[in-house]
Amino acid sequence: MTAIDFINYAVALATIGLGLCGWLAPRWTMDKLDIRSGPTNMAYTEVSAVSGCLFVGIGIGVLVLNDPVAWFALGLAYGGAAVGRVTSILRDQAGSRQSWTFFGTEAALAAWLILANFPLT
Description:
Distance between the termini: 17 Å
Number of helices: 5
Number of domains: 2
Structural class: mainly alpha
Order of helices and strands: HHHHH
Largest sheet: none
Helix content: over 70%
């Protein structure tokens, strides 16, 4: 196993781990992300789906496929998250230590996965 493989697998496992938190512990996740439920419980299903099983699914998918295209796609997903987060930080004046840390982590994971797995072989 190469260093690239090792780091790719670590990112996939971390992605799955974070997804499991969102899926199986949505209230805890919402508390950590400063998300509140409204008049309905839709926020819980949203966190379970988008901050949960979406991450579990893509994490498992890249491990099963173990192909540069899959790792690159995971990088694009993290890149999209980073763009969305920094857009909101700037637009919504939502810059906090936590939001900038999340942005930095997403941007770093995106950069790693895209650059380490490109050009696609």
